[in-house]
Design a protein that fits this description.
alpha/beta; homodimer; eight-stranded mixed sheet
């Protein structure tokens, strides 16, 4: 009776709801326990990079603290190629396009003697490189346009399910960085909404980002081509046109973020000069706590080592900017206990 | 002591958490009560429109039922002008643009004799209409471009805080339809993610959609102009250019939905021919339950009555399509107990 007296509001309904308390408190306690006692980033070695992340998240989530940020403003943006999955020896989407040219070749006998297609079919990368950006645009046009969005989703999904990276002999969706998956989950567990902001094709990523990264289609920003709406036999379709709509790279990243998200992120994660403006937009000239991070590929043994002179994922001016702006630079070799889940 | 004995697991921490129980249980109980016993759409009169909404939501949320839809696919899109707030005697954003011309006029003495600006300053709507779309584009260019996104947000927010609709004498943000606010909340309470998909300017809406509709900036799709990224004294800005980027109307709506959301909605709400393709994209040629709804403005007394021959918000081919496709048509006069919260 004593306890009842201490809680005069307790009645039959409250006692009934007490029956659900163990469930609630288990959920609360397990969240609490993970946050308090388990390492939320087990694939990260201790050091400046890891502690800068933990410190930032602690500051923005400490209610009543000077750096507290309300949940609706906890927006974090992640580049994809080289930040969440591999981009060497070439962007995965380019590997898709080259494979696709080979699949389509029997229907295009003229490609045997026509560049840049002949170069792709002959595996002649020197000739392919010589065809330059114009050649690349032609390849993207024939492999990415001329079908509905639903058809393109099926083509890319089928390819991703069967294609294997040559060096690792694994599907590309397994060549995602385990420490970054943990970081995505850790931020979400702390109230962040996580977005992908990639130079890659928006419709190339969306079919699998939920399953692999936990990021739903509506939180993916990327490059796109134009589409045309058509009613075909009463069924609406979007037909993919061979015309660029938006390039979500360099200055395109803050523009894409503004267009899709509509407010500035408080944290941004990249790995190349293509991410420079996204990190500037996120961290500079803004009030309140901000966080910028660059993944520096330093591990030729477990993955690849490249930066200032790389063809894909060049990290040069952004690396210099990181020092000036106090962005965290992750040394993959030193800071990551493992790179892939299978390591 | 008796109670403690009945709950042997109770210790000091549990007693502490008991202190938070009243808060938790109040929240749980009120959600439960609303869902179970209170009418979730109190401003809707009984009838076909209301029951079609309740029936659809019941079907897609019934676990194990034939029409169950997982939460991540419960996407609902809402037009804004004429669907969530008024669009007569003209779109609110046009009222903003005309007011803005007047504010800017002292810095542009040449406007006194230059169309379409002279027409705006003289309140000569016949001359303004005569300037056509070209005139309108000129007005939008000077009022919506030539400043940073942050400056534009301040200009529009200040205007919305002070501007009053002539007929109702109220801020535009009070001229939102109470039944539709209830519908937005009801869908969210049932696991839907609610998006705005409007022909209006995306950056005109975003500063207030969270507060008024409960829709965050990242769930607003709209028309936009191009922006340019600039570093000014080390601070990044996006400068608004007098160049159209995207028109989110008619066939632009499914294109915008695909670009921003990346999957098809299962429910769409509009009021005009500009929403026809959004409702087609949502409801036709797709498997599983789909819902389309048009608000038909039939109440000249409490709001406005218009459809097939209206200059703003013309509802003609979409009204015919509704009959063919079994979309719900809301008769404002008959179906809505009140139009505005202040009714």
């Amino acid at each position: 009776m004593k306890v009842i007296k201490q809680f005069p509001g307790i009645n039959r309904r409250a006692l009934l709801s007490l029956a659900t308390l163990p469930l609630l408190s288990t959920a609360l306690r397990s969240t609490f326990a993970v946050a308090q006692t388990l390492d939320p980033l087990p694939s990260w070695n201790g050091g400046v990079a890891k502690s800068s992340i933990l410190d930032f998240v602690a500051r923005v989530t400490t209610q009543g603290g000077p750096d507290f940020v309300p949940v609706e403003q906890r927006i974090a943006t992640f580049d994809n190629d080289g930040t969440l999955w591999i981009e060497q020896p070439m962007y995965v989407q380019l590997a898709f396009a080259l494979d696709r040219v080979k699949v389509m070749a029997p229907m295009h006998p003229e490609w045997k003697t026509k560049q840049p297609f002949a170069a792709v079919l002959d595996g002649d990368f020197k000739a392919l490189a010589a065809s330059g950006e114009k050649g690349l645009v032609e390849i993207i046009a024939v492999t990415h346009a001329g079908m509905t969005t639903a058809e393109f989703e099926k083509i890319t999904s089928d390819w991703l399910a069967t294609a294997r990276d040559h060096r690792f002999g694994r599907p590309y969706t397994e060549l995602v960085y385990q420490p970054m998956l943990e970081l995505l989950a850790y931020l979400r567990a702390n109230g962040f909404k996580t977005f992908i902001v990639s130079g890659g094709g928006i419709e190339f990523m969306r079919p699998w980002t939920q399953r692999i990264y936990g990021v739903p289609p509506e939180q993916v920003v990327g490059s796109s081509i134009k589409t045309r709406f058509e009613l075909k036999d009463g069924a609406p379709t979007l037909f993919r046109l061979p015309e660029v709509n938006f390039i979500d790279d360099k200055t395109g990243k803050p523009i894409g973020i503004n267009e899709h998200i509509g407010h500035r992120p408080i944290a941004a994660f990249g790995n190349s000069d293509g991410d420079l403006e996204m990190l500037q937009w996120t961290t500079l000239g803004a009030s309140g706590p901000r966080f910028g991070l660059l993944v520096h590929h330093t591990d030729a043994e477990r993955e690849y080592a490249y930066d200032r002179h790389s063809h894909f994922g060049k990290l040069d001016t952004a690396l210099d900017a990181a020092a000036v702006n106090r962005w965290t630079v992750v040394d993959m070799k030193k800071d990551w206990k493992r790179v892939f889940a299978f390591d």
